[in-house]
Amino acid sequence: MTRLTRADLDGLPAYVPGRSLADLTRELGIAEAIKLASNEVPYGPLPGVVEAVTEAVRGSHRYPDMGSVELRDALAARYGVAADRIVTGCGSVALAEILVKATCLPGDEVVYAWRSFEAYPIITAGAGATSVRVPNAGDHGHDLTAMAAAITDRTRLVIVCNPNNPTGTAVRKEELDRFLAAVPSDVLVVLDEAYREMVSDPRVPDALTTYGDRPNVVVLRTMSKAWGLAGLRMGFLVAQPEVATAIRKVLTPFSTSMVAQAAALAALTQENEVKRRCALVVSERDRVTEALRKLNVPVPDSQANFVWLPLTDRAAAFGAACESRGVIVRAFPPDGVRVTIGTPEENDAFLAAAEAALD
Ligand SMILES: Cc1ncc(COP(=O)(O)O)c(C=O)c1O
Questions:
Q1: Does residue 86 line the site of ligand 1, with CB under 6 A?
Q2: How far apart are CA 115 and CA 47, in angstroms?
Q3: Quick check: helix, strand or coil at residue 331?
Q4: Which of 125, 152, 333, 350 has minimal Cβ neighbours within 10 Å of its Cβ?
């Protein structure tokens, strides 16, 4: 057959979304399966979000405000940065994709840790750029010394995922200070903080307040996790104004929908509730970690809303065993399994499944 698409995409793994809850529930014939596979926070939309979305949808025959002006002003006020430094997008993954597009020509290199967020190889290859994967250190965290050493003349972008998906590990301020000092000033560093709201270790810096003013740093945030808007797709980045302007030029027009903008504005008024939910997640994360360690799984300390089970060649079987007990987790064979923190009841169901699976 005549080739219509790029041959180099053939070898690219497809992004695997967590297994469908409805599918598994039907297959097992149980009341309801539990999904702990996509790092969502389990407590529903924040108060006021459903109403804001319902109202916004009345104008859905019109295009949204392309500049997300009101939302950027609200984000600017909340995060203490100028609005012209903020770019919103259809989830932070879309913004990460745009960042590769805005920095790399075919053959340029993107350095990131591995394992890390599974979208990084996909968005890098999508732009025709080359992935340089730096293996995680023995503690499952980023090896920032090796990442700095992996930068070459071809490197245009370095991504630091902090905390790291899927291992949950986080790099601390001294390590990041040293790393950022070592990165050449013409290489853009993306600090992807999708799980920032769940960080409880004070040694892990908030990139916006600590590094936001560095010219070659971009901070990536999402409202999918702590802010409960995963299904509405709203992420944002903070960069220097010149970088933000360049990024806007290659942004898909109108990619932050009016519904996403309205939902994000409503969510931003609910910060106390976000904090309350994150505190619940953090305390459950610590409980689940301890319980798994008692089952002899060497779970690294997590600063996110998931835990990492480094089960290596047992990862796939463990994932399948949990699924057969109605709990969907995310196996990344041959490295490990990532399990999202759910409600206390969901976590109990997972721990029971894990105990049986590890037997
Ligand atoms: C590290 C990291 N970055 C970015 C994202 C993307 O989030 P979204 O596109 O929903 O904003 C995720 C989602 O899982 C993630 O784990």
A1: no
A2: 35
A3: strand
A4: 152
In sequence order, the 6+-apart residues with CB closer than 8 A to the CB of 353 are 321, 322, 325, 326, 327
DSSP letter, residue 49 = H
Q: Is the pTM of this model over 0.70?
A: yes
Q: Within the chain, what is the greatest distance between any pair of CA atoms? A: 57
Ligand 1 contact via 256 beta carbon (within 6 Å): no
Determine the length of the chain.
359
The answer to whether the peptide bond before residue 106 is cis (omega within 30 degrees of 0) is: no
Measured between its terminal Cα atoms, the distance across the chain in Å is 50
Q: How many whole angstroms separate alpha carbon 5 and alpha carbon 237?
A: 31
CB 330 within 8 A of CB 338: yes
Cis-peptide, bond into residue 178, ω within 30° of zero: no
Asked if residue 326 lies in contact with residue 24, where contact means CB atoms within 8 angstroms, the answer is yes
Mutate to test the pocket of ligand 1, among 16, 87, 118, 165 (most ligand atoms within 8 A of CB): 165
**Gap from CA of 140 to ligand 1 centroid (Å):** 19
Reading the block at residue 80, the tokens are 């203490």
Residue 14 reports pLDDT greater than 80: no
Task: Name every residue whose Cβ is closer than 8 Å to that of residue 120 and which is 6 or more positions away in sequence.
Answer: 96, 110, 112, 131, 159, 161
In one-letter notation, the amino acid at residue 176 is L
Chain-centroid distance, C-alpha 145: 23
Q: Is 306 in the pocket of ligand 1 (CB under 6 A)?
A: no
The first and second tokens of residue 153, run together, are 């003349």
Q: Is the CB of 224 under 6 A from ligand 1?
A: yes
Q: How far apart are CA 126 and CA 106, in angstroms?
A: 10
Do 292 and 309 form a contact (C-beta atoms < 8 A)? yes
- Name the CA radius of gyration of the chain, rounded: 20
- Strand, coil or helix: what is 286? helix
What is the H or E stretch that residue 4 is in?
none
